[in-house]
Amino acid sequence: GELSSLLQSHAPRSQPSKQALSSKVASGGAITEIQENYIVVNGRGFSRYGAQTALLGSYGSEQHLTAWIPPHLSFTKQPEDAWLADNTIFGPAVWIETSQESRFDVDLSITAIPAVEIVAGLDLNSSDSRKFYLKNIRLASMFKLVQALNTPEFEANRTYMQEQMDRPRIVTAVWILIEGDEAHSSFCSGGSLALKVLKKDVMSVSGHDCDMKTWSFSPDSVMAYESAKIKFNKD
Questions:
Q1: Which bin fits 86, alpha (ψ -120 to 50), beta or left (φ > 0)?
Q2: Which of 64, 89, 228, 229 is most enclosed, with most CB atoms within 10 A?
Q3: What is the pTM (predicted TM-score) of this model?
Q4: How do residues 114-139 score in pLDDT, each as one tens digit?
Q5: Nearest alpha carbon to residue 166 among 65, 61, 40
Q6: Exposed/middle/buried for 172, CB within 10 Å: 0-12, 13-18, 19+?
Q7: What is the DSSP letter of 71?
């Protein structure tokens, strides 16, 4: 069968605490809540569950007999380049306060991608390696993704999703952890992106008309993601 639509879902949009809200106002940052299974950015929830196994375009099943918000997913399949072609953009960057770093339960200094590996013309002396931020990469159009998934080339993928997977979902946005300073966080803001799967669990990012090198990331650097439920036409 063919996909009919993708339904977006988010983690809970809970109210930030007074302490978190004060931190946001003082710093200009936008992470207002960090929980074990989700974060809240600008009032919108993004899942952390299984984030370090997720790439943009990865898909998997909701875990059996669960009703979690956000859904608990088991990612079993990697994305295809054709699903991402001419359909990826950078979103905002959000800053991680020093007081928030331990809430992620990972060593950020080991997990983060150094900004000097991403931003063209940046050297170690011009980047503050003591700061961390999350950079959003997302699909620009759900409609284009559905069109790509419905091509004859991916009939086997659709059959697998429909017949072998339980409530399949696909990753439509990721938050990548980067080590660097605020002055260089808006790289490639006016250019175009190209994402490709290099090998298992590694994705390359290149740009056109922007001040960015070609770089790569793995799910280890994904701190949170957004997913959409895959819906099929009824036969």
A1: left
A2: 228
A3: 0.85
A4: 999 998 888 766 555 578 999 999 99
A5: 61
A6: middle
A7: -
